[in-house]
Amino acid sequence: MALLKPGKSSMEASSYRPVSLLSVSYKLLERLILNRIQPTLDKHIPIEQAGFRNNRGCVEQVLALTTLIEAEFQRILKTNVVFIDLSAAYDTVWREGLMQNFINIVPCKRMSELLNNMLVNRMFQVFMDGKKSSTGQKFQFTDDIAIAHTCKDMKEGKNTLTNDFNILERYFHKWRLRPNPDKTEVYGFHLNNKEANRELNAKLKCIKYGAPVWSNSAHTGKVDTLLNSVMRLISGVVHSTPIPWLSVFSNIAPPEIRRNEALMRLFIKTNSYKNSILYKYLENVPDIRLKSRKPPWVKARDLIQSQFCSATKWQEETGHGRCGHMMFKRKLKDSQECDCGNDSENMRHITDECPNRRFELGINGINEVTKEAFEWIKDLDIEI
Ligand SMILES: [Zn+2]
């Protein structure tokens, strides 16, 4: 299927992103092979590569890079980064060389033949408006590279980067990869820059994506406003509903709590797997000298130390859901028993069953929002 990239002309073939729908039995075979070879291959892949690997991810790589930059700020150093985008890496990579590398690691003729057959002469055909295209070749490999260099002054840093780039160019040539000049960028990260105050683009496609990296940004408020209006929309509440209650009605934790949780989870994961550059950087982060900076690792450590729990934190703000069942779940009570002797003090028990409290007409009656229901809630000794 051909999907038109946003904002591109529908008349150009290059404006389309092809998406293949593969046969399920083929995908099953691929998965069987992957499960067999992955543990062996994984030992030979450098930790810098996080793509297509278990327990690794893109956000972690971005956080590793920002951790490096942030750590160098603390050491009064600057960082130059080249972001390299390879054009059609999957199609152009030197397949024979790749297969030779594979055989060196997995010396199995049958397996390498099988893989080679999967990669050679893979054709795809695009169907559009009932018409078929001619066929082309397809091949897969991971791309997207960033190389970073720290330095005292930008000039010195640029020379080192140029040297690095020359080495990379030879590597690209060998592997038949071509950096895409339109999408390859060079950035210098330093603090004496007015650009640092540039506004965060609030038109994020997925608003929590990569949150561990930007959760300390001064611009999170703008994202929050957008998120709150979405929660208002989902829950269908009246406009005057206070912000803390939006989370309760839409059953989505408040943005900041979700960001903190994402940050904490990533750090806990990184600590338990240890096979990433993020872990390597976090092992020797410097002491905080610049009081104005709030690096994510400081925040993550605080969160882990205070045993941050998103569920508890969230409900603290509104005080809702304080029945025995929920309090027990959140480890705030030793038992979920009701004082009437029932073994669980849950919502349904309180509204419909509890001899000490129940509402005559039950939960359905409460949903009618009658004067009686209102009085019952007001007199209730539990915040639900
Ligand atoms: Zn009861």
TrEMBL record:
Domain of life: Eukaryota
Protein name, UniProt field: Reverse transcriptase domain-containing protein
CDD domains, A to Z: RT_nLTR_like (cd01650)
PANTHER family: ENDO/EXONUCLEASE/PHOSPHATASE DOMAIN-CONTAINING PROTEIN, ENDONUCLEASE_EXONUCLEASE_PHOSPHATASE DOMAIN-CONTAINING PROTEIN
Entry-linked InterPro entries: DNA/RNA_pol_sf, RdDP_mobile_element, RT_dom
Originating species: Aphis craccivora
Coiled coil spans: none
PROSITE patterns reported for this sequence: RT_POL
Ranges where the Reverse transcriptase domain occurs: 1-250
Biological processes annotated in GO: DNA biosynthetic process
Pfam families (UniProt xref): RVT_1 (PF00078)
